[in-house]
Amino acid sequence: MSWGDARSLTAAAASRWITNPKQLPVAIVNEANLSLKTSAGVINTFTAGTSPTTFTAMALRGAQTSVAVADTYVTLANLTGSGFLFNVICATNTGAVYTPTIRITVDGTVYTISSSSTVNATFRLVLGALIAATPSVSAIAAVGSDIISPNAGPDNGFSGANVGGLYNPATASIMTPEMILAYGLPCLRFETSLIVEMKASLLASSANDRLGGVSYRLDT
User: Fold this and answer.
1) Angle CA(129)–CA(88)–CA(95) in degrees, nearest 5?
2) What is d(CA 129, CA 188) in angstroms, rounded to the nearest whole number?
């Protein structure tokens, strides 16, 4: 093997993981249509972003926090060591249009992810891998078995236009860290440290609106 071949292999190995959070999937999702499976058993054991249960469950695999002041960052996670970042759900505002922002510091480098314009009330900025939202049992009986994979019934595909430069799917569901890794879906790798922050340009009156969550896994 030549030195050039060795360098090519090293570069390929180094590029296996995403290290720039701006390269992760990012979307604006109506919180009523953003689901997260919260217990074992039948497929419809899930909650929507309109419920604090969503963020309590997400915190079991990461953390949750609440925005206290308008247009001021709050910290979702401040980690030392190596690991993976999977998903971030930003706070929302159900009363008026607003601008959500997520700021992530990966191994000392700061990245900011936001919309280029205001987004509609009740919509949340979501970073990380998403699939079509988990349907109800009755929907499975009506539509068939190929129901939650990409291009299946609940996946709105190319029908959703961009909002503020970000994709706006009709429905979306967040997966567990194990499923994201097992299926080789995009996640963020950090080696020494990770800080995840969020803010909303307007302070919501609803306590649930002010909640946000993050899922991650440390190597140790």
Assistant:
1) 115
2) 10
